[in-house]
Specification:
With 73 residues, the protein is an all-alpha fold. The protein is built from six helices and no strands. The chain has a single domain (4-72), classed as 434 Repressor (Amino-terminal Domain) (Orthogonal Bundle), CATH 1.10.260.
């Protein structure tokens, strides 16, 4: 499950906006919103780009993008 609050906190901490981040990863801001709301999935490439842009460690990225997924299976 995607951790929206942790994601937003990292975006703000990096001094970015969601719209700016969407542009940086090559998606429409509405598309990013749908992904954040679980209506669509992030691609591996998008996760990689977000990780680089926000300087996320592997553990931070896992906590944001995959929190609790192993427990659900």
């Amino acid at each position: 499950m995607f951790n929206k609050n942790a994601f937003r906190a990292k975006v703000v901490a990096k001094g970015k906006t969601l719209g700016g981040l969407a542009t940086d990863i090559g998606v429409n801001p509405a598309t990013l919103t749908r992904k954040m709301n679980g209506e669509s999935d992030f691609t591996r490439s998008e996760i990689h780009h977000i990780r680089m842009i926000l300087s996320l460690s592997a553990e931070e990225a896992d906590a944001i993008f995959f929190e609790g997924e192993l427990a659900e299976t």
